[in-house]
Amino acid sequence: MVKLTQSMGDYLEAIYVEGLDKKVVRVKDIAKFLNVKTSSVVDAIGKLADMELVIHERYGYLELTKKGTGVARDIYKKHKELYKFFYEVLGISPEVSAKDACKFEHYISKETLDRIVKFIKFIETCPEGFPSWLKNFNYYAEHGKRLDICPKKKA
């Protein structure tokens, strides 16, 4: 298991995500993606190359190694699952969901992420459709009050 800082994980994920859309990934692509200076990208890439996660020829393309691809794919998968939970389940804005997913993906335990994924799958496969209690929660979160149809708690 490779131990990365949040920043190094972000660079690795950025290379992976950019590589999904482009045939070749360059330092300037990562700088733009992460909104950082190219010199910062070059420093990070050097560290990732030392960890055998990235191959970078001077002034050339960036390429993830097999090991780097595996680590980056895992980070990206966490990001997507967390984004989905924040945005689709909790109803948080896309911008905040993306930002928070990026932060959480580095620290969340496997156990917690697995439970979130199961919770999403449970909701998605609910035979009655989107659960009414979750709709009620989203209404409450947005408006600060309960719907009149919210069932009373039984004593």
Describe this structure in words.
The chain has 155 residues and is mainly alpha-helical. The chain has helices spanning 6-21, 27-34, 38-50, 66-89, 94-104, 110-124, 132-143; strands at 54-56, 62-64. The longest helix has 24 residues, at 66-89. The N and C termini lie far apart (50 Å).
How confident is the prediction overall: mean pLDDT? 90
Structure class: mainly alpha
Radius of gyration: 20 Å
Largest sheet descriptor: 2 strands, antiparallel
Number of helices: 7
Query: Looking at the structure, what is the overall shape?
Result: elongated
Low-pLDDT segments = none
Strand order of the largest sheet: 1-2
Total strands:
2
> Strand-and-helix sequence, N→C?
HHHEEHHHH
Q: How much of the polypeptide forms β-strand, as a percent range? A: under 5%
What multimeric state do the chains show? single chain
Helical proportion? Answer: 55-70%
Descriptive tags:
single chain; 155 residues; mainly alpha; two-stranded antiparallel sheet; 7 helices; 4% strand
